[in-house]
Design goal:
By secondary structure, the protein is α/β, with parallel strands linked by helices. It is built from nine helices and five strands. Strands 2-3-1-4-5 form a five-stranded parallel sheet, with helices on both faces. The protein binds 2'-deoxyguanosine-5'-monophosphate (DGP).
Length: 210
């Protein structure tokens, strides 16, 4: 008997929308319900490519904009064998950011088209569900000071938000918009319901490709 695969679930949103908090709570809740679930995050700063990205974000090095875009994508590709293995073992993966952040953040820079930005991620495992934690960037800014990393300014985040809105028009991706201005627990219970449904419906389907 072949084992039922896990679901690939992604959380996206602007900085401070609560993605990391919700990913952790979701994994814990799924495990408590007897589901095999693990969290992943992109960029994964632990690999060699991830370390380059991390020092770029910390402004310790400067990389040309196309180059860093390709490195973010390469960082996702290098984890694909592991992701596929886990999904095939029946483990549901809850992923904090994915290719959509890649496209939204780079295309928010001048002179980058969505099409060019999407290309390097074509063929990555396709999420069964992408939840967009919707939060007005000015409300996000009130949740605390932005840090000192690259991209952490209100003007840039507004531009990122607009790119995400473009991406959400793509009907080939299973987007669900979640109002992230509500309390942590209310957001969590919405997310949990969506995930239980998608885990049950995707377990007999092949893993798709972006
Ligand atoms: P964090 O999620 O806190 O580890 O922050 C990572 C930062 O990098 C955040 O500002 C979003 C940005 N980011 C994530 N993925 C990509 C990507 O693929 N391309 C670009 N240009 N930026 C990304």
């Amino acid at each position: 008997m072949s084992c039922r695969r896990g679901a690939l679930i992604v959380l996206e949103g602007v900085d401070k929308a609560g993605k990391t908090t919700q990913c952790k709570k979701l994994v814990y809740a799924l495990q408590k319900n007897g589901r095999a679930a693990e969290m992943m995050r992109f960029p994964d700063r632990t690999t060699q490519i991830g370390q380059l990205i991390s020092s770029y974000l910390e402004k310790k090095n400067n990389l040309e904009d196309h180059t860093i875009h390709l490195l973010f994508s390469a960082n996702r590709w290098e984890l694909v064998p592991l992701m596929k293995k886990k999904l095939e073992q029946g483990i549901t993966l809850v992923v904090d950011r994915y290719a959509f952040s890649g496209v939204a953040f780079t295309s928010a820079k001048p002179d980058f088209s969505l099409e060019w930005c999407k290309n390097p991620d074509v063929g990555l495992p396709k999420p069964d569900l992408v939840m967009f934690l919707q939060l007005n960037p000015s409300v996000a800014a009130e949740r605390g000071e932005f840090g000192t990393e690259r991209y952490e300014t209100s003007a840039f985040q507004r531009s990122v938000q607009q790119r995400f809105e473009q991406l959400m028009k793509d009907p080939s991706v299973n987007w669900k918009v979640i109002d992230a201005a509500r309390s942590i627990e209310v957001v969590h219970s919405d997310i949990k319901v969506l995930c239980e449904n998608i885990i049950n419906t995707s377990e007999n389907l092949p893993i798709g490709e972006l």
